[in-house]
Design brief:
- The strands form two sheets. This protein has a six-stranded parallel beta sheet with strand order 3-2-1-4-5-6, sandwiched between helices. Strands 7-8-10-9 form a four-stranded antiparallel beta sheet.
- Strand 7 (135-136) and strand 8 form a beta hairpin.
- It contains seven helices and ten strands.
- It is elongated.
- The protein has helices at residues 10-21, 55-60, 76-89, 102-110, 118-131, 161-164, 206-213; strands at 2-6, 25-30, 46-49, 68-71, 94-99, 115-117, 135-136, 145-151, 170-176, 196-202.
- The chain has two domains: 2-120, NAD(P)-binding Rossmann-like Domain (Rossmann fold), CATH 3.40.50.720; 132-213, Regulator of K+ conductance, C-terminal domain (Alpha-Beta Plaits, 2-Layer Sandwich), CATH 3.30.70.
- It is an alpha/beta fold and 216 residues long.
- 31% of the residues lie in helices and 24% in strands.
Length: 216
């Protein structure tokens, strides 16, 4: 995949190194040349000094061939402008913008722009660790559902996946068995001691779900 990243701060540089290690073609754009030092000597992608929404700079980065575009600078306006140029002018298939202001993130989402609010995600991660350690609402980027991990207990051992499921409230999506790879289980699969069950849960019904599954 050919990926262009605008912004070489902590997020941009980490993303660039991850993608490069996976052998994707990566181009990083930043106004500050010193920011590229974060990439380290092993980074084998391309770096370009310049403005992330400058058409000339983007053409130099090869945006006409890009499969994906990420704007992750520390400025919402820059990220939005760069993403709009990539999406509307150059028709890049996948465009993602990092937005700090949660209110603006919702507005731009409603306008069809793919945005990620680090503020919302980080707050959700802290909330999950404080309140429900085995529950991760931030993984789905929604305030309605989350991912719930349950260790087999006396209430669910011997029951089938179908018996664990709660229509519209909780659906098992994966079963992790000791010494085996995670699987997507059949509805007839029976829970054994040592198993871990992973499911999608309704946040509104979380208390009811935990009671049904014997989770304290």
């Amino acid at each position: 995949m050919y990926v262009i990243i605008v912004g070489c701060g902590r997020v941009g540089s980490s993303l660039a190194k991850l993608l490069a290690e996976e052998e994707h073609n990566v181009v990083v754009i930043d106004k500050n040349a010193e920011a590229f030092n974060r990439l380290g000597k092993r980074f084998n992608g391309t770096t370009i000094q310049g403005c992330g929404f400058d058409v000339k700079v983007l053409r130099e980065a090869g945006i006409e061939e890009a499969d994906a575009f990420c704007a992750v600078t520390n400025g919402d306006n820059t990220n939005i402008m760069a993403s709009e140029v990539a999406k509307k002018i150059f028709k890049v298939p996948k465009v993602i913008a990092r937005i700090y202001d949660p209110r603006r993130a919702e507005i731009y989402k409603s306008l069809g722009l793919n945005v990620i609010s680090g503020t919302v995600l980080f707050a959700a991660m802290i909330r999950d660790k404080l309140i429900e350690e085995k529950f991760s609402s931030f993984l789905l980027e929604t305030s309605e559902f989350g991912v719930l991990e349950i260790e087999a207990n006396e209430v669910i051992v011997g029951k089938t996946i179908a018996q664990l499921n709660m229509p519209s409230q909780f659906i098992v999506v994966s079963l992790i068995r000791r010494n085996y790879k995670p699987i997507i289980p059949e509805s007839t699969e029976t829970i054994q001691n040592g198993d871990k069950v992973v499911g999608i849960a309704s946040i509104a019904a979380l208390s009811k779900i935990k009671k049904h599954l014997g989770v304290k």
